[in-house]
Amino acid sequence: MLAPIYLLPKVIPVCFLLHNTEFQGLWLLRTEEEMKEVCSAFNISKEHCTKYVQFRNTFNLLHAAASFISVHQKSIGVVGVSDKYGKCSWARYPALCTLKHVDSLPNPDPTDIAALDESATSGDEDAGSWVTIKQDPNSDLFVFIGQWSKQKGVDLIADVMPSLLEKRPSIQLFASDLSLIFMVGSAEKLARLMEMYPDCVFLKLVCQLGF
């Protein structure tokens, strides 16, 4: 969140989405030497570091975002991925203390299952048109797109999917990793499933593992 600070004194409006707030980008600023070293590494002036980025004795990127928006946007432009997450993050992390409030993004309504119009096709049919799985409008399509990490349960998906595919032929799986692979073992299991069930399983990896 240093981009708008680099552009100062020109001020541009920014929007900051709170997600994975635990990662705050921290570097120690206990001494003048550490301050000089970190500011040099990030090509930022000591003045801007002190005003926007420094929180207590650390270089804190989360605080940089909060400070910039507090100073130049009156705390307008910070949202959590949900109403609960935004409020909890604001209350939990002192680095956000300069903000007067945190807004939230509206979550999808799980009861809203009507088609956008009468001619709309099912999501299953749309997905099958650009991946190698068999098009089946009656399938139970399971989709995972995002960073493969243990916290998101990718290892559980890899463990239970063989049994589910064997017991329920209607299941189809689409899984894509949008970043570097962390769960290599799980990726290998899912790749094997794609070989065993080519009509039902499609795996797309950004970082290929040689299989």
From TrEMBL:
PANTHER family: CELL WALL ALPHA-1,3-GLUCAN SYNTHASE AGS1 (PTHR47182:SF2), CELL WALL ALPHA-1,3-GLUCAN SYNTHASE AGS1-RELATED (PTHR47182). It comes from Suillus luteus UH-Slu-Lm8-n1. It comes from the Eukaryota. GO terms for molecular function: alpha-1,3-glucan synthase activity. GO terms for biological process: fungal-type cell wall (1->3)-alpha-glucan biosynthetic process. Transmembrane segments: none annotated. The keyword Lyase does not apply. SUPFAM superfamilies: UDP-Glycosyltransferase/glycogen phosphorylase. GO terms for cellular component: fungal-type cell wall. This is Glycosyltransferase family 5 protein. Keywords: Transferase. Coiled coil: none annotated. InterPro entries: Mok11-14/Ags1-like (IPR058655). The keyword Ribonucleoprotein does not apply.
